[in-house]
Every structure is written in C-alpha cells, then in structure tokens.
UniProtKB/TrEMBL annotation:
Taxonomic lineage from the root: Eukaryota, Metazoa, Chordata, Craniata, Vertebrata
CUB domain mapped to chain residues: 154-266
Protein name in UniProt: Uncharacterized protein
A GO CC annotation given for this chain: membrane
An annotated GO BP: cell adhesion
Intrachain disulfide bonds: C341-C351
Coiled-coil region(s): none
Amino acid sequence: MIGLALASARTPLEAFRGWNCSEMFFIAAVLLVSFVIRCVSSQGLNCAFYLSRSLSGVFHYDQRIRYSLTFPAAKVACEQDFGAVVATREQLHAAYLAGLEGCRAVTMQTPAAHSPLNLEDMSISAFPVITTKVPTRGGNVHSSTSSFVNPDSCGGVMRQIEGRFQTPHYPQSYPRDMDCTWEIEAPLGYLIRLDFTSLFIEEHRTCKYDYVVVYDGKGPDKVEMGRFCGSELPPQLQGSSNAMSITMRSDSSMELEGFSAQFSTFQAPEGYIHLDRGNNKYGGIIKMMSNGHWGGICAKHWTNRDAMVVCRQLGFGGPALATRVDVNQQNTSQTIPYIKCKGDEMVLQDCDIKRVGKCSSNEHAAVICQVMESCAALKSAGILKSGVFTIDPDGVNGGVDPFPVACDMISDPATGITIIGHDSEDRIRVSPCEDAGCYSRAIHYNQASLDQLKALTETSKYCKQYISLECRHIRFLKQHWGWWVSRDGRKINSWGGASTDSGKCACGENGNCALGLSTCNCDANDGVWRQDKGYLTDKAILPVREVRFGDTRDAPVEMAFHKISPLHCYGQSSQVSVLESCTALKKAGFQESRRYVIDPDGAGRGVAPFEVFCDLTSDQSTGITIVSHDSERRTRVAPCEDPGCYRKEIKYEAELNQLNALTSISESCEQYVKLDCRHIRFIQAAWGWWTSWDGRRMFYWGGASPESGRCACGMTGSCSVPGKLCNCDSNDHIWRTDEGILRDKSSLPIQAVHFGDTKGAPLEMAFYTIGKLMCKGQAGR
C-alpha cells in the first residue's frame, strides 16, 4: 500500500494526505529506518539527519537548478529519500563533491526536533515529536522564549550589550533577492565580538551568489572583515571599533536556511589600537585607547619603527610603512602628542609615550601594514625572525582573505618556509572497519580554508606534505582499498614519494617494496608490521583533504596507523617584481637596510637587474641606493709627469649603462671626491680631470658647478693662494686638499680619474679618495 501511494502521488506529500498523525508517524519511521540501512550499505556515510521545516525542493550545487519535489528527484548522496528527511551539511557537501544531488525536502516537524538526529541509534520512542503541522514560509517558528532579536526582520540596528539575530524565516529558507543589513552599535570605547552559530548558504568558491559579509564599522568608512557562504562556520570575528555591520544578499535561484549569529560587547582595554579611515584592514589612521578615550597620535616624530610596532600589535608581522594624514582636530576627542618606539616592542603601550600636550599640525600618524604573499616574500622583505605572521597569497585585493601561518626563516638559508598545521598531525589509529575506504579522516587546517591554501600553493615555488601509513595484514593501493583526497575532492591513487595517481607508494616507484610487490609495502597483507611513507610534492593538488582506509576490521591482527605532517611551502612561483630603486623599495614597505636587487628601467627592458645596498633608515622620507666600487680607499697617484698621465678606471658593482639607468630614474645622485696634494698642478692648469660615465672629460671638482673649471674653494673665493681656482693648483710644498660632492647626475658615476705632475716624488705627491655613488628619490616626483 505504501509503495502504491508513493507511486501514484505527484509529490511525497500527496501520498500522505488524509492520513492521521499515528499513521504518518508509523510510515515515517519505517521509511526513515529503511533509508538509513540503504545509506550505510551503499555509501558508508555517517548517516546523521535532521528533519526539515519547509518544502524547499531539490537542488544541484553545480548547476544551481531547482527541481520540483517528486519522488524520483528527491535524492541525497544515498539511493533514495521519500521526501521527509534532509542530509546533514557534511553529507550535502559530500554529495556536491561527488556530483550528486542534494535534497532539502521537508515536512512533519516541530521546532523542538531541529537538532541533528542519528537515526541508526534512534528508537521508535523518539518519533512522537513528529506531527503533521507544516509551518508556513512566513510563519514564526520560534517559541515565545526565543532569545533572538527581531527574528524575521530584514536587518536593523542593535544597541544592546549582547544579542542574537538571524536571516528572515530562519531556519526555513531565506527570501529570494534579499538585501538585509544589521548594524551593531556599542557605546564609545567598547568593542564587538561576533559568533556565527549556524551557517547554511548556497556554496560557491568566491561566494558570488548568496553570501553574508561582515564589516568593521558602519557607513562609508566600514572595512570588510570577511565574506562567507556554504556551511563552514567562520571563526569568531572581533571588530576594532564600536560598530559592526552584517549584510546578507541572495539571488533568485536557491535559498537555504541562512544564518544565526550572536554578539557581545566589551570595553576596549587601555592601549588598545585600531585603524580608522583606511581602504582596508591593513592601513589607516591610528586610534589608541588612552584614559578611557580614543585618541589619534601626532605625526611630527612618527617613523617606520613606530609603525612596525603598530602592525605587530595588530597581528601583522611584516614590513610597515609610516604615513601621515591631515585630520580635522575638532573630530578628535583626544590626541597623543608623542610616541617613540625602538622597533622591537610588542605593543605600542610599551613605547615612550607622552600623553599630555597638543599637536603642532593637523597631521596624525597613520600606517600601512604590508601583508605579504608568503613567508618567502616576508624573508625577501627583510623579516628574518621566525614566528607567526599573517599572509595573503593572492594579494590584498584578491579572492581569499589573509590568514595566519607559522614562518620558519632559519631552516632554509635561501627562503622562508610557510607552515600550516592541522588537527591530524599525531599518529592516529585507523578505526576497525572492513570495506574499501570505510575509514575516513577529514583534515582541518589551522585557521585556513582549502581555497586559501590553494592560493598559497599557487604562489609558492614548491610545496610538500609528509604522509605515512604503518600497517599489518591490510590491503592498500593495489586493490583500491585506501587512498587520499586532494584539496579539490579528487580520489588520489598514490602515496608519498610516488608520482601522482601512479598506483604506487615510494617503494613501488623505487622498485624496493617488500615481497617483490610493485605497488606498496602495505599491500603485502601479512602479519608483519610494514610502512609506506614519503612526501607528496604535487602542489597542484595539495594539501591533503582526507585519508581513506579499509580492511582493518579484524583487530588486533588487522591494524593501521596514519600520520600526516603540516603543509610546507617554499619560495615563490615567480620572482617578486624587482623594483627600480631603494626609494621604490622603501615606498613598498621594505625596512631593513641591506643588499637588494633592483632594475631601474623595469623588468624585461634595456639593462639587466643588479645588486646594490639600500639604506632604508638614514632618511625617513626615502631610500638611498648605494653602489660601491674598487677605489674607495685613499690611493696614491703613481709618479708621472705629463697632464693626465696617471689614469685609474673605477670598477663598480654594476655596468656603467646600468648605473646610468639608475641615475636617470633618481631624483638626485652624488659622489664624494677628495684630492690631497703637494707641489702639483690640477684643474686650472688642465693637469688633472675626471671622466663622466660616458667618457667626457670633466674639468671641475667636488663642490663646484659643472664646466666651471673650479674646485669648491674656487666657487667661494677661498682657495689658499689668491687667483687660484683650486687649492691643488698652488704647486707649492704645503699639503693642501680639494674635496666636495659631485651632484650632476647626468655625468655620474665617475668612470675614471686622471692626474699628473707627480714625477718629482717625494716632493710632488698626491692621494685621491672617491666615494660610493649614492642616489635617492624618483625623477619627476
């Protein structure tokens, strides 16, 4: 009779019309139990279900199509479903990964039965909660004791100390084409914490269709904290101000449960900081909680060292750039006139702070925290200490949010290593079960989603993950009894140390498996403890998402243990764009004075990149590019008589055309020169000169104007002998000096120096010193 009723009905609900509650309860119990048995035998899933509240239809995640709820169409990951149950979120996701249909079918439940029920353990006595009452879409399904705020409202403003809110009609389907915004407002000096208690929104890799967005603040200056969809609960979110905005949007193709959330407020502690009026969470004007009030910081003495402490306190351990912003003093409740940090403090509160006084200008301190793509990028930027850092593999404006990782800056001298741990790093026993893949262990990575880890592997040069299986008397890869699942849900038939999908472990790849096997040691299926282990290195499918094993039911004879290491990623898939100068590096947030590679005319253009020393600390406003050479020591001019008979060509760390490219893009360049002399002739007599980078003779010296034929003293009329234009043209027995800085960047660097009239040593003698080429700023800026 049951089969006839279902077969003749257009929908499952029609099959039950006219039946009383007890009859419906009996049929529901029979069908539900039957369904569970089928599910266990056909899919090996954890069959925990909960009964739904509304008739939502059947959907397919990939195609985004809604079907009518007919008996054949109402399917979940298992064979069939009569329309009165719905799979757990985990099962729906598994169905999606397998390309199957997910069912959200409906009916017969009161609010009290919303919690997931494990039907394998459920007795008939559990079913009295089922009734024939089906709440309408617009009905309020919550009891009068509900703690939710405005349960069916589309947004609103909440000003209480704590509270709860949810999407309209929750836990029934949210409306189509909804655009709702909830604002939480706490008192001044308070902060807000937000926890999602339930999330079930149409899944998409970038949350393109239906999604909820959380913002720090409200209005035009709010900053996005995260965008969420699917069924994975976000981590706790804590804002940096006394306001938070939550917006939920949907399209017209698929509506699921939505979300429920709760919030609480708390007073910001003394010394707490947040960034205001920035384009994102990594930059803005610094506001600090001081004496119970938010206050800005005067920018007069603000430096990158101070900015580094701010970023460190905010959780961003990479480079930091100090900036200044004009503000309206009237909008600032309190101003901190002076803060000075050494740069190694963990929080701004530990710096030298002057809390009383006024700013001498309207400029307040601001900061840009440089969030790099990986630990390798951080090390390239001069971060050499290991620790926990926030990275953003696809960039601040990319698809995935930043996330924290462990950075090992020591183990590999050439690069930083990005390490992401997970919840399955211990040696874990495979639970006894018999069928192929019946044991499943899903890997949950620390504070990072699979999409975020995909972005990391794509930006890294290479990644690896160690994986091990210890076994006795089991079957493994050879008969497809075990496997691992890639980040995109693919079943991978290979193991650590072997090529992807080769059907082998490391020993099979190397030809040294036990008993002459060609696949894995664990395929021996004998009473000896064996092991298959090695590194997975195909970064296109890493990290490991899940491991599956079977043939371990007859313990203790049949046993296995697995171990999976954290994901390790090295280097950068493509070199970070080489910047044109040290000025550009400082502007990009680099702070450590050291050697860098620059490319003044840009990648792929005329001159090749070359290495220089960058002074990023001496001048707070810019970086200084410093190029060394082989003639920086005080050097004696070898004895010779004729004009320019002594010649010394200067050998720089880069070619002259490369250095000309540097001087061309720099705002200014300079090079120090000095000549100590006795009884010689020099510039005025045309006995000495220097040549420009392109070989032109230059008859002037440091401190004088180009083409002036003078030294510095000749410009000021202060040479030691009246009428002379250089001290070293005195040609007497007194030791004299001409020195100064050459600043005509179109002629720099010095290619060579020429001297003469030193043959009559030791009476005639000279020593010269030539400084490094130093350039700063950007031309045309």
